[in-house]
Batch of 2 targets.
Target 1
Amino acid sequence: MNPRWSWTLPLCAALLLGACAARPTPPQPGADGAAAPTGTGPGPTLDNLPTYLSLVRQMQGNGLWFASLAHIDALEQKWGASPDSRLLKAEALRQTAQWSASRRLYEQLLDTPVRGAAYRGLGLIAGSQEDFPRAILMLEKARQLLPTDGLVLNDLGYAYLLAQRFEEARLPLMQASELLPSHPRVASNVALYHLSTGQPEHARRLMAQRALSPATRQAIEQLALVLRPGASQPAPSSSLVLKSAQRLSQASLAEAQATKPQ
């Protein structure tokens, strides 16, 4: 069975947690309104494209999605659009719920060197709009192009879990767990896989090793019960799956924020 449901929050949270794991210090606005580099000594200036792109990525890593859109417009006015700047804009548009504009940009990037990331973005947008088969299709294309990207693998494995396609979830999740062994969201999803496939001891051992919070553990266990109902129980409704998935996402996000470097 492949139920359809909205999964915006779970997968958006998964993306955000990738940045939360190692958040840089947010750049501060300078006198001209541009983001000034941080640090005690002379920092880089914004007089070249690679430096400006790096600072925009830093802003996005800190969740400053709306501000990053303004800076992307500024750098493209000065240096013109590039696949890298277009990808940053597509990501920011998606994170600010501007789905149509974001999708158009991702589609324009499918013939560029950043097409793997573009497929990933299209997959996440499809999921947010309840087009579940397309979401998995796009994430699979992203995996083909970015086979060692742990976050892509984690997103794909989680998507398969929510679709109750447990066998297909196993490989990408196990790969993600070895590529990103310290990532809390990956650990949560692997534990969810173990519980959903009747391996509670493996799940409890992993949750203990990763020192997952009680709230995260409880959310994982509740979602596993929803995804793997007993033989005499009806299939879970989309609203119940969504509610349980959101609870896990919120718990994982809170855990990542609590453990991030200060």
Target 2
Amino acid sequence: MPNDQMPARYQQLFREHYPSVLRKIIGLIGDRAAAEDLAQEVFIKLYRNPPEDLARTGPWLHRVLTRIVYDHYRKAGRLNDLNEKQQHEALAGEQTYPSNEAVVIQSWERDVVRGVLNKLSERDRQALLLKEQGYSHAEIAEALQVNPKIVGTLLMRAASRFKKNMLSEEVMEQ
């Protein structure tokens, strides 16, 4: 694509993909302001180093946003800041204040699930997260760069490993 067409094409890609990129990041980190900053980083990467095939921008953006969110968690030094998320939601009027017990239980459950997810391979983790976010098998195959015919098996095996790790985590808690 000629360079003079890139800004217009970039604006089109931004308008087309920004809402879903932002929604996915908010779903992963729970903080809209931080998610907006991270979404901006995703699109800066798109502008500076676009994929060779612009028709595959969606899966490319997903891979980039996943890496940026992981980097965000690494920099923050922990996987979840539940209190900040709850403060944001309360200020936005989206929920009532939960009891302290509910906060502790939710925090514990999320920590356990994230811990179990982190024990999985990168491919298994991404496959499960993509499926949970509503991606089709074809979209998952494209994002993971695998043959679409193996996605079902990959998801079943990843879910099996996740379940096995969850059960061993529960046994350790007792």
